[in-house]
Write a structure and sequence with these properties.
About 35% of the residues lie in helices and about 30% in strands. The chain has 10 helices and 15 strands. A 5-stranded mixed barrel has the order 7-8-13-10-9. Helix 4 runs parallel beside helix 5 and helix 7 crosses helix 9.
């Protein structure tokens, strides 16, 4: 199971360690944080204790409104559930009982100057990507005109060469050879690199090139949402290559369905141009336009007119 250590969160968001520094190796497995307001009030029925606990102005103001003994008891009741850590936002002063209790229990107590809502948004987004289910596949990932493309095909078929042509036309490389796919939601699939191959493109007969060094920062981006899965295949002489495809095909990655098309390779074909056309066609479909549907409508209108 994937996890993020509390110490990594502290480094990532530059959090001040107030207490419980010995527990920075504690692990976070859940991708959303929790505000323990109801729990400080004594209601634990739905306590998400395995999440990062974020204490904002409301929670801290409530604790300060309590008497010393009641405050200490409320804090002990919450901290005793051993959540991964507590983060106090807006740089506010921390009541001493919370600091002492976290130190005693070995639970990291951290502080940030960020406002509560802003910090929660950043933290949840970071955890969602870090803890998302992922798989690695063989292929190339590109961003073509703002649209994430997964380019697949057998080894040696020319995926990287096509990617190079697209990069020279102003599009962006995300990953070559090994593409890491992350599932952020039931309908959202993110493509990224495995860090080792970041910015590199492998071209047969030439070797590795660094696209950023050759073509500038605009030639690369770290991740993209996958919108199209394109498979490059060898030309089949008697295959039907001009079908209207009224019913689109899909690929399934971790139960996320991605529209899939096949492009057959043949000497002289502008494959990069076909991929650009596929990306633009997908965008038009998202806007409600389908060339195939318009064509069929015209055919039906002609038939009706000739009756």
């Amino acid at each position: 199971m994937k996890f993020v250590e509390v110490g990594e969160l502290a480094r990532q968001f530059r959090l001040e360690v107030v207490a419980g520094g010995d527990g920075l190796n504690r692990r976070v497995y859940k991708s959303r944080s929790h505000r323990p307001g109801l729990e400080f009030a004594g209601f634990f029925d739905f306590f998400q204790k395995d999440r990062v606990q974020v204490i904002g102005l409301k929670e801290m103001h409530y604790l300060r409104s309590l008497g010393e003994e009641e405050q200490a008891q409320k804090i002990r009741d919450v901290v005793s559930h051993h959540s991964p850590c507590f983060v106090v936002t807006t740089g506010q002063d921390i009541v001493s009982h919370l600091e002492q209790c976290c130190q005693t229990e070995g639970i990291p107590l951290l502080r940030t100057k960020d406002p509560t809502a802003e910090f929660i948004d950043k933290l949840d987004a970071y955890l969602a990507r870090s803890l998302a289910p992922e798989i690695a596949i063989h292929g190339v990932c590109l961003n073509v005109s703002g649209i994430g493309i997964l380019l697949r095909g057998k080894s040696g078929i020319g995926k990287s060469e096509v990617a190079h042509t697209l990069i020279r036309r102003g599009h962006r490389l995300v990953a070559d050879d090994i593409v890491v796919l992350k599932k952020l939601s039931p309908r959202t699939l993110i493509g990224t690199h495995n860090r080792t191959s970041r910015e590199f493109l492998a071209l047969r007969s030439i070797g590795l090139i660094n696209v950023v060094r050759l073509y500038g920062r605009k030639a690369f981006q770290d991740e993209t949402r996958i919108a199209l899965d394109i498979e490059l295949t060898r030309w089949q002489e008697h295959a039907l290559n001009n079908e209207l495809e009224m019913e689109p095909k899909h690929s399934n990655y971790m139960d996320v369905l991605i529209p899939q098309i096949e492009i057959q390779l043949q000497p002289g074909r502008d494959v990069a141009g076909l991929i650009e056309a596929a990306a633009n066609s997908w965008y038009l479909r998202q806007q409600g336009y389908s060339a195939a549907e318009e064509f069929m409508k015209r055919v039906e209108e002609d038939l009706e007119a000739n009756r």
